[in-house]
Amino acid sequence: MYDVAIIGGGPAGASAAIFTAKAGKKTIVIDSDQSVTRRAWLDNHYGAPAISGPDLVETGKKQAEKFGAEFVRAKAGKLTAGDGFLTVETDAGTYEATHVIIATGMFVDFAEASGIRTKPGTEPRIKTIIDATPEGKTSLDNVWAAGTVAGVSMHTIVTAGDGAKVAINVISELNGERYVDHDVLKNG
Ligand SMILES: Cc1cc2nc3c(=O)[nH]c(=O)nc-3n(C[C@H](O)[C@H](O)[C@H](O)COP(=O)(O)OP(=O)(O)OC[C@H]3O[C@@H](n4cnc5c(N)ncnc54)[C@H](O)[C@@H]3O)c2cc1C
């Protein structure tokens, strides 16, 4: 049983995994490797001057793995709610988790197959998104949405930021108090 299962390993999903894994939450990222970010050249990602989309995605994955997040290459079909946990069915087996974060980019088929409420998108070229609250909560308990699929602006710094925001909300729910992840620069 995982604390958090994340569907999608692009900027939103991997950024969320960095926070949940670093907070000591047992984290799995299920990704089908269809990230549109792999076609991007990024000159506007704060703090990472002139980086290719593939390099950004690989760097994010390594950061999350450093803190113990597991990545599995698979396509998630749908999730079902059990008694206090969620079951994610994929083409490489099923995974159980207390919380699920959906970060599937432009794809809403997983959300729709899971009976999660969606609505028309508002960003350019985005047809449908998950109907999520500003905190990232969806119409299903313990199921959250982050990044493009949650309706934020389709830019890596924004989707990565949204993934972090939602992860902090999930960690705070699991811990029962607001979570902060600050490391201090050691002198000398
Ligand atoms: C050509 C191009 C150029 C761009 N240039 C820029 C730019 O210069 N600057 C900028 O800031 N942004 C740019 N972007 C936008 C940016 O790349 C992303 O769109 C944005 O960051 C999306 O992040 P995300 O994590 O929400 O989605 P994605 O990066 O699309 O990640 C979603 C992940 O979910 C996975 N997934 C989906 N469904 C499933 C499923 N059922 N099971 C398992 N995995 C699933 C996909 O395989 C994918 O890896 C560009 C995009 C494109 C296409």
Short description:
The chain has 188 residues and is an alpha/beta fold.
CATH fold annotation: FAD/NAD(P)-binding domain
Please report which band the strand proportion falls in: under 5%, 5-15%, 15-25%, 25-35%, 35-45% or over 45%: 25-35%
Largest sheet: 7 strands, mixed
The coarse overall form would be globular
**Poorly predicted spans:** none
Which series of helices and strands comes N to C?
EHEEEHEEEEHEEEH
Count of individual domains: 1
- DSSP helix fraction: 25-40%
Ordered list of secondary-structure elements with their pairings:
Layout: E1 2-7, H1 11-22, E2 27-31, E3 41-42, E4 51-52, H2 53-66, E5 70-73, E6 76-81, E7 86-90, E8 93-102, H3 109-113, E9 118-120, E10 128-130, E11 143-145, H4 156-175
Parallel strand pairs: 1-2, 1-8, 2-5, 8-11
Antiparallel strand pairs: 3-4, 6-7, 7-8, 9-10
Helix pairs in contact: 1-2, 1-4
The structure holds flavin-adenine dinucleotide.
Flavin-adenine dinucleotide binds at residues 7-13, 30-37, 39-40, 42, 44-45, 53, 75-76, 103-105, 107, 110, 147-148, 154-157, 159.
What does the model show?
By secondary structure, the chain is of the alpha/beta class. It has one domain: FAD/NAD(P)-binding domain (3-Layer(bba) Sandwich), CATH 3.50.50.60. The chain has four helices and eleven strands, in the order βαβββαββββαβββα. Strands 1, 2, 5, 6, 7, 8 and 11 form a seven-stranded mixed β-sheet that branches. It has a two-stranded antiparallel sheet with strand order 3-4. Strand 6 and strand 7 form a beta hairpin. Helix 1 packs parallel to helix 2 and helix 1 runs parallel beside helix 4. The longest helix has 20 residues. It is globular and about 50 Å long. The site of flavin-adenine dinucleotide (FAD) has 35 residues, from helix 1, strand 2 and helix 4.
